[in-house]
Amino acid sequence: MDMNLVVVFLPIIFSLVISKMYPMDTSWYNTLDKSPYTPKDWIFGAVWPILYILIGISLTGPNNDWLLLNLMLNYLWIILFNGYKNIKAGFWILMVMCMSLILYFGQSGNYLLLSYLVWLLYALYLNYYLMTNNPKSNIGIEQEMDIEYVFVE
User: Fold this and answer.
1) CA dist., res. 126 & res. 35, Å (int)
2) Over the stretch 64-120, which tens digit does the pLDDT of each residue have?
3) Burial label, 146 (beta-carbon count in 10 A; 0-12, 13-18, 19+)
4) According to the 3-state scheme, what is the secondary structure of 28-44?
């Protein structure tokens, strides 16, 4: 089997595994005040597989450091937003994802993922709307995970 073919499908396989481990709590998500421009759920299900395959295709080319970082952040977003319901963390991760993708374009010269950048910018807007219109849902990751900080003097 051609290794490039395996690489093309790895992003979608990993996203499916992580999404199963950290599923979206629809009862929580449905209570949020969402943007009037929030798409129907089926649109997310249609768009992401296409984007993951485009990411996989791009991973078969050279100069992928920024794209690999972007993909890892993508998976982290799933964990923090879906799993821990942390809207603020999701927003900041999306911000860094947009920047890393722009840096990838500059490094690789590969613009196959321009549609991905447009989708990320749209997701950034949707996440920002959630963050600013659902202040009670904007708990910090420390509270959600019950992290206790110990300072040593």
Assistant:
1) 6
2) 899 999 999 999 999 999 999 999 999 999 999 999 999 999 999 899 999 999 999
3) exposed
4) HHCCCCCCCCCCCHHHH
